[in-house]
Amino acid sequence: MPEILQHGFMQRALVAGIVVAVVCPMIGVFLVLRRLSLIADTLSHVALAGIAFGLFAGLPPILSALVVATAGGVGIEVLRARGRLFGEAALAVFLSGGLAVAIVLIGLSRGFTVDLFGYLFGAITTVTPLDLWVIGGLGVAAACAVLLFYKELFAITFDEETARTSGLPVAAINLMFTVLTALVVVLAMRIVGVLLVSALLVIPTLSAMQVAPSFRGTLGAAVAFAVSSAVLGLVAAYYLDVAAGGAIVLVALALLGVAGAVGAERRRG
Amino acid sequence: MQMSGPVIEVQGVCYAYSRERVIEDITLTVNAGEFLGIIGPNGSGKSTLVRIIAGLLRPSCGKVRLFETEIAQFTEWRRIGYVPQRATAFDPRFPAKVDEVVVSGRAGRAGLLRRFGAEDRRAAGRALEIVGLGDAGSRPIGHLSGGQQQRALIARALASEPELLVLDEPLEGVDTEAQERFYDLLRHLHADLGVTLVMVSHDIGVIASEVTTLACLNRTMVYHGNPKEFVESDALRVLYHTGVRIVSHVH
User: Which residue in A149, A165, A216 is closest to B100 by CB distance?
Assistant: First the structure.
């Protein structure tokens, strides 16, 4: 067994990283194609308010983050569905609002603690066995939900209006999808941190779009890109002794560069 | 596909965005087998009317019945195929094969929590054959020409085997040659397959020679009846140049 796999914390980090890397692009592909990429970033800042509240009130931060991010997501979706979202401005309101609440709550408690830094920048190597169960359970649930509603999500993402005319319960599916997004954002936060969550949802999707012609292929390639980024990033972080969250996202960006070059070459050829 | 009876009944319908009424007191019946063309100047409310019929907008007043059921109670949306403007329907960079787009037209018919089966794929394949894209199924949707993309959107609507097809300015941004091919297709759907058609257009000259009934809108109904009489009448000149509202109403 290679040295990296001899540590329990690295085993847990790899498993958690792979689960999150599988489920993030499954949500991200739909978000990017609906031009809602910024929602992930917004929800991660809203979730930070939930984390801060949990640390302040002595509740499990993951739980309070889930509740607050879901509420924020539902708020955004309601505004979007009513056409009240003026461009991205309303997202900016939620993003800065979440951050502001977080900062106030952090000030009211003991200021910046190790826990809080873990959520800001990711702390994959501190994943406990209990965390692993939570991440695994919720991750598998989210992935199953996407697969179960795959054909509806595709129809809505391709052309929401026509999907509505074909009798699909578009509003209900959009709401469910928002809850899934909030869930995945909170899971990803543990791995790469609040500030880099949207990277895991968006970058693998963009890479996949460079090389896959079909939607199914794009979804599969995005998962492959994300899992590769997570594994390579963690290995690099271990041997080079750098921050895992940053390393994962840098690998994802490097893969985007490669995919872009391959895609351009193919279009030329 | 043989049917009789009214497919669409619109009665005294109006629609207002905030306080401005874009259509007012529209009454109209479309029977099975009809081909209705809806024309009118920009901002005349013709798109609003078909969006009400397609269930995308709720009228501010009046009644709409589809297949003899109040629209609020209507659930058999698979009987209606909707074809949007190509230019606004989707991004040409969307990563999807034509097959994937066309079969998605059956999502509502297949039902929740069910995967597409062999019958769904067969229906999608038939729809592609009908629109003349039988060999384009595995191509990315963005690689098709504008006219082909529009026909792919029709195939998506046909995939659920609808009895009524509602088309909202489907020829926006489609070149003339492709337009002719498009009308050939509509004629085939209407005459050979018995599909009832409702189509919004602003190309009056062409549409008047294709449809069985013409409705001309300018907020209110300006003309509703035989297309030939409309062309022979003075309505066109009056409507587009002087904007006088009620010219004639023939039933």
Answer: A216
